[in-house]
Amino acid sequence: MMYLWLVRKLGSPVRAALVSVLVYILLALAIAMYSELPDHSLRYLEI
Amino acid sequence: MSLAGLSLLPLWAAFVAVFWVTPRRLQIHLLIASGTGWMIFAREAESWLLLAALSPACFFLAKSGAQRGRSIGVAGLVIVLLGYKLVQDYAGDRTVGESAEPFVLLGASFYLLRLAHYLIESQKRALPDHSLGQFLAYAFFLPTLTVGPINRFPEFLRDEHRRRWDAKLFVAGLERILFGHFKVIVVANYLVQTKLGVVAAELGGDQTRLGAYLHCLEYGLDLYFRFGGYCDIAIGLSALLGFRIAENFDYPFFRPNINRFWQSWHMSLSSWCRDYVFAPIAFSLRRPSAGVIASMLIFGLWHEVSPRYVVWGFYHGAGILAWQQWQRVRTAIPPGWRLPPAIATPVSTLLTVNFVILSFAITRSDTLTQAMAILRVIFLGEATR
């Protein structure tokens, strides 16, 4: 889990929580921005 | 509609909430009902019928204790899978409403291998004691039903016994779902297909060396991020229900040889092939090379029964055998003559990645002739006509 990895790297649970929340928000924003793109959802993956 | 689609997230949230407030003894029934419900909702009645007919049959065969019956069962599953692949690849599209769609039995390639694994393990008497409900919950387990990973029954049963609310696992599951959607939507759909695809097309597409190479790279990265993303979502959804599903990818493009690559790409299928194809053939014939070629052939034919996937299987099998030969040669080289690891590892990783990228010329083409034309462009610079 990213939070635990960040705690180990940054040495501070508060900083790790802030960074991980920020990363989650950025990822969610990016997903929202590009979710309208045609999804080449590869029906063949569900073979 | 894909099981991993963003629009289904509210439905998943509702299902997970209902799952955890349901009494524990009823939860496995909910798992069976969810798999059944999804197949009906997705209008996949044929696939549901097949799974609903085969899974109880496998259970009773496994419980019967008749070794011969189990062997016949495994052979039957292989024939069903082969027949399905042949119909899928050669019968053409079927008409759904007003449009033509390829014939797909939702998730059949995955659940048939799960059932075969179950029967083979029961033959070895390696399965823990379990009920029909537990086995059906495994067979109809919704998160992994359509795109894998091909999870194993003993691990599923272990989690079914030990499962309890675990906030840490739940949060890890949510994170994996977020990562999975990011891989599919942002990386695969946007960065790879839209951006890299455009760059490859602008460089001349399959008419120029770089364009053809980039198209192969685009295909491979798209497959990796899309499939890896779906697996992340499946693993994340399983975690929300308290199940730990084995990983399917482990940074395959950073592996220093083709053997390690296949230990980290579609790991649930490669380990299936290792346990049920490679090991029996290698041990019975006392020829590991035959096991390698056979398992890579089965790996290829699992995707599609066609000459190009036979060639693809041989290509990778030959790659693994060549690497094994190289290992023998390498040990004979005096240590002072060998490249230092700081140079050898990046060089071998680069060689491995390119060996794999070139194989995507085969899988992304419709025919072998087309694949050969792409490879001719990459190596000789001859444009396809």
Largest sheet of chain A: none
Total helical segments of chain A: 2
Order of helices and strands of chain B: HHHHEEHHHHHHHHHHHH
> Tell me, what's the shape of chain A?
elongated
Low-confidence parts of chain A: none
Instruction: Tell me the fraction of residues in β-strands of chain A, as a range.
Output: under 5%
The number of strands of chain B is 2
Radius of gyration of chain B: 22 Å
Number of helices of chain B: 16
Computed CA radius of gyration of chain A, to the nearest angstrom: 16 Å
Strand and helix order of chain A: HH
In whole angstroms, the N-to-C terminal distance of chain B is 38 Å
Sheet bearing the most strands of chain B, described? 2 strands, antiparallel
Query: How much strand content do the residues of chain B show?
Result: under 5%
Q: Low-confidence segments of chain B, ≥5 residues, pLDDT <50?
A: none
- Shape, per Cα inertia axes of chain B: globular
Assembly of the depicted chains: heterodimer
Describe the structure.
The complex is a heterodimer of chains A (about 45) and B (about 375). By secondary structure, chain A is an all-alpha fold. Helix content of chain A is about 65%, strand content about 0%. Chain A is built from two helices and no strands. The two termini of chain A are about 30 Å apart. Chain B has about 375 residues and is mainly alpha-helical. Helix content of chain B is about 75%, strand content about 0%. Chain B has a two-stranded antiparallel ribbon with strand order 1-2. In chain B, strand 1 and strand 2 form a beta hairpin. In chain B, helix 2 runs parallel beside helix 6 and helix 14 packs antiparallel against helix 15. Chain B is globular. The model of chain B has no long low-confidence stretch (mean pLDDT about 90). The chains are: A mainly alpha (about 45), B mainly alpha (about 375). At the A-B interface, helix 2 of A face helix 5, helix 9 and helix 10 of B.
